[in-house]
Specification:
Elements: H1 2-11, E1 23-29, E2 35-40, E3 47-49, E4 59-67, E5 74-82, E6 87-93, E7 95-97, H2 100-111
Antiparallel strand pairs: 1-2, 1-7, 3-4, 4-5, 5-6
The structure holds zinc ion (ZN).
Zinc ion binds at residues 29, 31-32, 34, 68, 70-71, 73.
């Protein structure tokens, strides 16, 4: 029982209060140019991927469908992570990845 509890405590970051180590993605819609910020939680959004007969994940994958406020085009984002939840690759269709600086300056320009 104590081992079981320990395992789950580790998974959830202890007491069900996961540390906020979210990944923020910044994307620009290819259709209208809107910049959008998306939160990816390594604790909640990652789907484990299994390979062969192994009973532990060999990696993780995240698929996000993003719809901005300016138009109804969908932006698909797919990210892969290794077994230690470190980002391996990211792929996007319907938009482009931008930096946080680009996102913030676009927002500043819009509200000015
Ligand atoms: Zn758009």
């Amino acid at each position: 029982m104590s081992i079981f509890k320990k395992l789950f405590g580790g998974l959830l970051g202890g007491g069900g209060r996961p540390a906020d180590d979210a990944i923020w993605l910044y994307v620009r819609c290819a259709a209208c140019g809107e910049t959008i910020r998306v939160r990816v939680s390594p604790l909640n959004d990652l789907s484990p991927e299994f390979e062969g007969e192994r009973d532990y994940p060999t990696g993780y994958i995240v698929r996000k469908e993003i719809v901005g406020q300016n138009c109804f085009r969908r932006i698909h984002v797919e990210m892969t992570f290794d077994a230690r939840r470190q980002p391996l690759s990211q792929d996007i269709t319907g938009g482009t990845f931008i930096t946080r600086e680009e996102y913030e300056s676009s927002r500043d320009a819009a509200s000015a």
